[in-house]
Amino acid sequence: MAQTFFTEDHEWVRVEGDIATVGITNYAQEQLGDLVFVELPEKGRTIDKGDTVVVVESVKAASDVYAPLAGEVTEVNDGLSDNPGLVNSAAEKDGWLWKMKLADKAALDGLMDRAAYDATTA
Amino acid sequence: MAEPGELKRLPLHDLHAAAGAKFGGFAGWSMPLTYPAGVMKEHLHCREAAGLFDISHMKLFVVSGREAAEALSRACPIAADGLATGQSKYTFFLNDEAGILDDLIVTRVGGERFVVVANAGNAATDEAHLRKIASGFDCTVEALDRVFLALQGPQAEAVARDAGLDIAGLGFMNGKETVGGGFIARSGYTGEDGFEIAAPLDAAQALAEKLAADPRVEWIGLAARDSLRLEAGLCLHGRDITPDTNPVDAGLIWAIPKTLRSGGAYVGADALAAAIAAGPRRKRVGLTPEGRQPVRAGAALVDGDGVAVGTVTSGGFGPSFGGPVAMGSVDVDALDKPIFAEVRGNRLPLALHPLPFQPHRMRKG
């Protein structure tokens, strides 16, 4: 069963097996406003925790999205090229950013659950 | 007054908070950046109907007295005594090197009385500059404490009329004082028809509530104000024009009367005449990035060999244009070659685009 974790940088991480899907939270998209461009990583790229993996651009500014965990990018959400607004309308579902094979599943222990995350934005 | 480092609140702050504004710092003020509709919808609404902006961070001065026109003709490259009563003029404060200290709108509201509208970020230095120059003339400078609203868009005239605003006789770039210490001008920063309206707090609060209640009107935040003015090819002081930019390099010589281009009594006249004679070193141009990725202010511009040729001075996404748009300052000898912006280690190709990106629809008087 899929389990979802959250980071202090307002990302969500949904884990199924050793594959994690990463996106930004609904709270984050609200703060950013209307997105007009999403710069996605190359498939196969190895990323370390904290690396800038994605840049989301709103009308006004560019913001970095960091790797919440180490691993290898296995898939990116190509639909965002034509429709970056999907991140606004469905941040925690169809507006996902990339999937990655986790280097170390034990690192998930350092992330928050929904209740703990919601408490940080309350 | 706010403590140093603390953001000042607009007089109508609570009204914006009640309208659901998100606030952010700009030029020392806590400004509404967006309202619940969001920057994209706000921008498009302003182009389609009417947008209401709180621009009370901007500063109004009244220069009055027997030599008010002479003082302004010394402070700015204009012939203030040649302005008709009711006429507004886009102009500048220049430094001795003809660098642009600020861009302004000066309106003659009476025989010996002028209103000067200055940018928020430069208000304090503008006031000191203006007072210093005015001290040599028989005139006074008064800094006004006013709420300042902008009503912009194709429906602005109908909305203004229905709200009972005194807009009779106002064509584009006309302005006048109104009863009760108010000022209204047909001008703006969006490329649309519209008005800029100053009033003392009590009257302004009631006016803002009345205008915002009009179904044709939406509040517009600073984020959409920026995308609207960028599409309109209008300069933001501090970005597109600075004290290191002269009107020649900024492509703003049109704002200087022909008779004052070879010299005059204004500050910076000799340096400006020399700059005009020498020709532009750089040009302010419109730029469109290939693809969907915006380029932002501060990005370096290079030619195909990676040699620096300029800087992006404003950049973002143009909701009406339907793609990313930018303005930049480019060396004149690089304008016939391919130009790229350096963004996060990549070189993005850019095309030159005539300014404005969105045709102006101001109402000529």
Mean pLDDT of chain A: 95
Number of helical segments of chain B? 8
Shape of chain B: globular
CATH superfamily of chain A: RNA polymerase II/Efflux pump adaptor protein, barrel-sandwich hybrid domain
Oligomeric state? heterodimer
Can you tell me the CATH superfamily of the domain at 8-56 and 146-231 in chain B?
A: Probable tRNA modification gtpase trme, domain 1
Task: Tell me the fraction of residues in β-strands of chain B, as a range.
Answer: 25-35%
Helix percentage range of chain B: 10-25%
List unreliable stretches of 5+ residues of chain B.
none
> How much is the radius of gyration of chain A in Å?
13 Å
Structural class of chain A: alpha+beta
Please give a structural write-up:
Chain A is of the alpha+beta class and 122 residues long. Chain A has a single domain (3-104), classed as RNA polymerase II/Efflux pump adaptor protein, barrel-sandwich hybrid domain (OB fold (Dihydrolipoamide Acetyltransferase, E2P), Beta Barrel). In chain A, 19% of the residues lie in helices and 38% in strands. Chain A has 4 helices and 9 strands, in the order βββαβββββααβα. Chain A has helices at 26-32, 79-82, 86-89, 114-121, and strands at 3-6, 11-16, 19-24, 35-39, 46-47, 52-58, 62-66, 71-76, 98-102. A 6-stranded antiparallel β-sheet of chain A has the order 1-2-3-9-8-5. Chain A has a 3-stranded antiparallel β-sheet with strand order 4-6-7, with no helix packed on it. The longest helix of chain A has 8 residues, at 114-121. Chain B is globular, with a radius of gyration of 20 Å. In chain B, the strands form 4 sheets. Chain B has a 6-stranded mixed β-sheet with strand order 11-12-13-10-4-14. Among the domains of chain B are: 8-56 and 146-231, Gyrase A, domain 2 (2-Layer Sandwich); 281-353, Aminomethyltransferase beta-barrel domains (Elongation Factor Tu (Ef-tu), domain 3, Beta Barrel). The longest helix of chain B has 13 residues, at 201-213. Chain B is an alpha+beta fold. At the A-B interface, strand 4 and strand 6 of A face helix 2 and helix 7 of B.
